[in-house]
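Appendix C reproduces, verbatim, an entry submitted by the partner laboratory led by Prof. M.T., so that reviewers can inspect both the input and the predicted structure.
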Amino acid sequence: RGGRWKHLDLWFDAMESREVYRNTITDRYNHSHALPPQLGDFILESAGEKARAQIDGIDGSWAAAFAKHASASAIGKGKVEKASAYCVTSIDCVEAAAKIISNHENIVRFATRGVAERERSEILEQNLDECFSIVCNSLLTEKIELNVEKKIVWNARTISAIRYVRDRIGVPRDMRRGAAAALRGSIDCVLKAAGHDCTIKSPGSGRTRAASAHRAAA
């Protein structure tokens, strides 16, 4: 953008102003993890480490994005994505909460894939349902309040299952990118409030997964 093809820039600007188009686009997290297996094996440049950390949220940027959305701050300005293309709003939070609430039973079952099959149980599912209730409450109230009356066991299984869902939110398959940013950030803020490291990725969700999958298929 901003080069010699000014009319082409205008065409893209006009296209991106249409809601029907914006609803079909993905985000940088999904794009950077889904595309490599299709392109073939690759080598990660060390110069891109900071950008990868921002995209993957391992620098705390996902939690920061959610924490700042109430003040309508543009997230990502001067970083990986332009402020006009990546911001978290209250509408995004409502959309994310609605997606969880309307499909919470299936989401809880999906989350259990994040632990070994022998460790899955009805108690774990009940625990996860309470966890997602807290996440939805934080999205709708813009506050992180861990309900002490609900005894959630924040053990390794629960944390692994929550991270499993967070790292596999598909855009636009599951929700639009603003809602996905809000949900990832809310989950990270809840994890932090519970005293856990929100920057750890779930097994099989990192960039090594793409390279390994390609080598396995070769």
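The chain is about 55% helix and 0% strand. Additional entries are available on request from the coordinating office.
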